[in-house]
Amino acid sequence: MCYYNLMAKALKSKLYFFLASYFRFFAAIQLRKWSPQIIVITGSSGKTTLLHLIESQLGEQARYSHHANSSFGIPFDVLGLKRSTLQKTEWLYLLLAAPVKAFKKPYLQKLYVVEADCDRSGEGKFLASWLKPAITVLTGISLTHSMNFDPLVANGKFPTIEKAIAYEFGYFIEYAQDLAIVNGDDDLSKSEFSRARAKVEQIKQPIAANFYQILPSSTEFIIDGELVSISALLPREVFFSIAATKTLVNKLGASFDPSFKNFKLPPGRSSVFAGIKNTTLIDSSYNANLDSMQAILDMYRLYPGNNKWAVLGDMLEQGSQEQQQHEKLAELIKVLNLKKIILMGPRVCKYTYPKLKSILPNSGIIKFEQPRPLLDYIVAEIRGGETILFKGARFLEGVVEHLLQNKSDATKLCRREKIWQIRRKQWGL
Questions:
Q1: How far is the C-alpha of 294 from the C-alpha of 305, rounded, in Å?
Q2: Model confidence over 142-168: pLDDT tens digits?
Q3: Lowest mean pLDDT, pick from 11-15, 213-217, 258-262
Q4: Residues 6+ apart with CB under 8 A from 354
């Protein structure tokens, strides 16, 4: 069975760009008819938050590629197609609709803000060479989807996985026509500057520590001497995204609003909810790599609260770096003053738990491999007044859903599509 699963996965990988090219072909026809100024938002993490920050400033001046950042998703968005259930039965309609949608009436907006990811080798070039963005904004580069880049190191094409990933993201710098706004604090991003044809503008965090303050329901930054206060919990690293948004807005000749009054935090990125028994839930369950774990845990360390718990799940698709990354997670956790540390998932149980126990032998660290026992434990143990952070993979959003005081808040969680509802039910959620 395992052999056939591996064969199916290999076949799917080989067909990925072949099938994506079909949709890109028709999307290219529509894109030529539309002819917008394209702004690409890319990087290993923080892309969606940055997209929402830009949207809060530009509003209806632009179209935004919400829920679409891949070699399939972006052509779908250009064509006006959408996967609503994420089930296989949708594909026949998508294949038949693409040629028709290629000749639809173009969108009215003349700005197109696109979130673009590099899940695999070849994706950066596949998208960047087609989109040819006027402006690229690169949030930073780290180990994400690492397992898809392992073969490039194994065959000697790149010395490290980090270099392989950086090179793929570098295509968005290479194909930028006018400007590349990049994270000047990120060495991997800087390693790709030499490929730029356009002007490169670096943004760096201030050296002074007082540029960032986390409050119970808002975050304050000092950007170019100006106070920016946003009604959301945001890690320190979002400084780059706010400063990049300001740079972009100024470049486009629009006015910058330091209050970000129209900003809406995307689901699963540190959203704050009222929980059962007077608890506070901080939901950052959308995804996780080591850099995003570090950013959120650092934010949580500064968050005001006396009875803080952390529920941390697996970091997926780490490939050959899986053990190393999960053991490093233990080092990040040890500096936090937490009442409870709860790990959930086979990877954190296998690698993070023993490492953490060796560092903090007298701490009460609990582990679960499955989400349902985790949920039952939390419901039984909370007494009231706890603040609980959720970060990582393996259906943590389903655990959060069952802990909400207001059940209608479930619509604000990530992974609401039918396929995820089915999977959560299969896992007892």
A1: 19
A2: 877 778 887 888 888 888 888 989 999
A3: 11-15
A4: none
Adjacent-strand bridge partners of 280: 274, 387
Q: Residue 343: enclosing H or E segment and its boundaries?
A: strand 340-344
Strand pairing report for 365-368 and 340-344:
parallel
Cβ–Cβ under 8 Å, residues 284 and 269: yes
CA nearest neighbour of 230 among 266, 262, 183, 208 = 262
**Residue 197, SS3 per DSSP:** coil
Sign of CA dihedral 72, 73, 79, 84: positive
∠317-79-58 over CA atoms, to 5°?
A: 80
Provide the 10 A C-beta neighbour count for residue 130: 19
Mapped onto helix, strand or coil, the DSSP state of residue 279 is strand
Q: What is the average pLDDT value for the chain, to the nearest integer?
A: 89
**pLDDT at residue 145 in the model:** 76
DSSP letter assigned to residue 349: I
Band the pLDDT of 423: cuts 50, 70, 90.
confident
Per-residue pLDDT tens for 270-288? 899 999 999 999 999 988 8
Exposure b/e, 228-251, CB count within 10 A at least 16 = b: bebebbbbbbbbbbbbbbbbbbee
Q: Are 354 and 381 in contact (CB under 8 A)?
A: no
Identify the CATH homologous superfamily for domain 26-251.
Mur-like, catalytic domain (3.40.1190.10)
Helix, strand, coil share (%) of the chain residues, nearest 5:
45, 15, 35
Burial of 157-188, coded b for 16+ CB within 10 Å and e otherwise, reads: ebeebbbbbbbbbbbbbbbbeebbbbbbebeb
Rounded Cα distance between 189 and 175, Å, is: 15
User: Which part of the chain has CATH 3.40.1190.10?
Assistant: 26-251
- Quickly list H helices, 314-359: 322-333, 346-347, 353-359
> Which overall architecture, per CATH, does domain 271-426 show?
Alpha-Beta Complex (3.90)
Domain with CATH 3.90.190.20 in the chain: 271-426
